[in-house]
TrEMBL record:
Residues 3-51 form the HTH cro/C1-type domain. GO terms for molecular function: DNA-binding transcription factor activity; transcription cis-regulatory region binding. Residues 7-61 form the HTH lacI-type domain. It comes from Schaedlerella arabinosiphila. Keywords: DNA-binding, Repressor, Transcription, Transcription regulation. InterPro entries: Cro/C1-type_HTH (IPR001387), HTH_LacI (IPR000843), LacI/GalR-like_sensor (IPR046335), Lambda_DNA-bd_dom_sf (IPR010982), Peripla_BP_I (IPR028082). Transmembrane segments: none annotated. The lineage of its organism: Bacteria, Bacillati, Bacillota, Clostridia, Lachnospirales. PANTHER family: LACI-RELATED TRANSCRIPTIONAL REPRESSOR (PTHR30146), RIBOSE OPERON REPRESSOR (PTHR30146:SF95). Gene3D superfamilies: 3.40.50.2300, lambda repressor-like DNA-binding domains. This is LacI family transcriptional regulator. PROSITE patterns: HTH_CROC1 (PS50943), HTH_LACI_2 (PS50932).
């Protein structure tokens, strides 16, 4: 059987009576051609059975159509869900992704960044917290971060302050005796700190008794479980018989607490109300669906990729115009009331 001949730019040029330069412009800068000429070439590609050689195109123009991603871990359901949503944007933006999990190790993440740059990625999305935005801004490619410190780079974040405020308001409406927020330690320049400040602001404005508990929970179940168990033991000792409204900084940790309570009591006791954060799949799939402050994860992912693609597209222009300052986009949260607050 005769092997099928690869269609070349020469073949397309001969078929359309255009020059090879015009054919090259169609692939690398189609907007420089009229719509009529673009259509003529597009029809010719179908008739000739053209199959693009991506490797040759990368070698020719140095553009890989790859975006690098660094995430802290895959234990917290927020990260796995937002990664899923980012990957789904391929159908819209036609960029592919190279992904590394940093596991909160600064030197490891620096090595991963160099590895990504060696693959000639065109931009990068960073969700990990270990490397400062100032250092990231010194890289030679566009950067967009999600839910982390972002002073020197573009970012897309949830309005965490609003989310903390919403959680406290929901618990207050249920007449809790004590409102409690559980979070990891975070500096004020990290978006997640807004959950703490929003929660505290509502409690102070309404003269409610509240408590903030900050612990390091690690990046796996083995690290989180003993910390949540210790917190529960303390709460039971300090507030026996009192109605406890608990806002936890992630659905993953909220689910750990819910499971501990159900193992001990066989159900969620009436004196415990529980609100998570993220609206990740675990909040809906838990043994009791968890009330949560929902990050609009699909919008966070889409806007991050869109913002990055805008910058990458600008860089491809003959005279690119850099941003005057980083763009910071804020997405409002949505409160979801489920069984962990509506059971009593």
């Amino acid at each position: 059987m005769k092997e099928k001949k690869n269609v070349t730019f020469n073949d397309i040029a001969d078929y359309t009576n255009f020059s090879k330069t015009t054919i090259s412009r169609y692939f690398n800068n189609p907007d420089s051609l009229t719509l009529k000429n673009q259509q003529i070439i597009s029809d010719a590609l179908v008739k000739l059975g053209y199959q693009e050689n991506k490797v040759a195109r990368i070698l020719a123009n140095g553009k890989t159509e790859f975006i690098g991603i660094i995430i802290p871990d895959l234990y917290y359901h927020f990260y796995s869900e937002i990664l899923n949503q980012i990957l789904s944007t391929y159908e819209v933006f036609n960029y592919k992704f190279l992904i590394f999990v940093g596991n909160k190790n600064e030197e490891t993440e620096r090595r991963y960044i160099q590895e990504l740059l060696a693959y000639k990625i065109e931009g990068m999305i960073i969700l990990s917290h270990t490397i400062s935005s100032k250092e990231l801004s010194g890289l030679s490619i566009p950067i967009v971060t999600i839910e982390r410190e972002d002073r020197y780079v573009c970012s897309v974040n949830t309005d965490n302050h609003m989310g903390g405020y919403q959680a406290a308001a929901l618990l207050a409406r249920h007449k809790c005796d004590i409102l409690i927020h559980i979070n990891s330690p975070a500096s004020e320049d990290v978006p997640a700190h807004g959950r703490l400040s929003g929660f505290s602001d509502f409690c102070r404005e309404n003269s409610l008794e509240y408590r903030i508990i900050q612990k390091e929970f690690g990046h796996d179940y083995k690290g989180a479980l003993p910390q949540i168990r210790t917190i529960l033991d303390d709460l039971e000792s300090l507030y026996p018989g009192q109605k406890k409204g608990i806002f936890i900084s992630s659905d993953t940790l909220a689910n750990v607490m819910l499971n501990l309570l159900i193992r001990k009591y066989g159900t969620l006791p009436e004196d415990y109300l529980l609100v998570g954060f993220d609206n990740s799949p675990i909040s809906r799939e838990a043994v009791l669906p968890i009330s949560t402050v929902g990050q609009q994860i699909d919008k966070l992912a889409y806007e991050a990729v869109r913002l990055l693609v805008e910058q990458m597209t600008e860089q491809k222009k003959r005279k690119p115009v850099p941003l005057d300052k980083p763009v910071h986009k804020i997405i409002p949260p949505i409160l979801f009331r489920r069984e962990t607050t509506e059971h009593s």
